[in-house]
Amino acid sequence: MDTAPAVVVGLGNPGPRYEGNRHNIGFLVLDELAARVGGRFKAHKSGADVLEGRLAGRRVVLAKPRSFMNVSGGPVSSVAKFYKVAVADLAVVHDELDLPFGTVRLKLGGGENGHNGLRSITKSLGTREYTRVRFGIGRPPGRMDPADFVLKDFSATERKDLALEIDRCADAVEALVGQGLIAAQNTFHA
């Protein structure tokens, strides 16, 4: 009998206008994971696009909410309920202002750090105790408002390494799914 799947959610905003934005790194990482699983996302009644498959030898559900990031909690909660997944088996891939570009950090629980997508998920789940896969996007330059910064595309310099960093973040998710949080942290926090 197969165990419950791991659910990996990538945060972003829907539509072509936002595709290359820093805030959409969760979607970009999930697109890489979908390529590894060998499938395509399909619309799901939860309000997310989902893909079921196997990753690192484990059943996995990849999900990209179709709502805007700031209200992504509903679709995330619906996916978890539909697949009968405990919060312990839920991981959220998101952008992180407080980490340098390309840095990947995994953690269980914690605050939202001003991230409205995480705030929405925490409110919908009723707990902060889900795993976060944080992809560093760095701080905005000068006095730029962080809200404006996250909705801008990656810079030309960042884009040179972006595919490599997305691949590394996908590796971290794969390690998390296959080996667990501690092992993934030991590998990717070095």
From TrEMBL:
This is Peptidyl-tRNA hydrolase. Keywords: Cytoplasm, Hydrolase, RNA-binding, tRNA-binding. One of its GO terms (cellular component) is cytoplasm. It comes from Actinokineospora fastidiosa. The active site is at residue 23. It catalyses: an N-acyl-L-alpha-aminoacyl-tRNA + H2O = an N-acyl-L-amino acid + a tRNA + H(+). It is found in: Cytoplasm. CDD domains: PTH. HAMAP family: Pept_tRNA_hydro_bact (MF_00083). The gene is spoV.
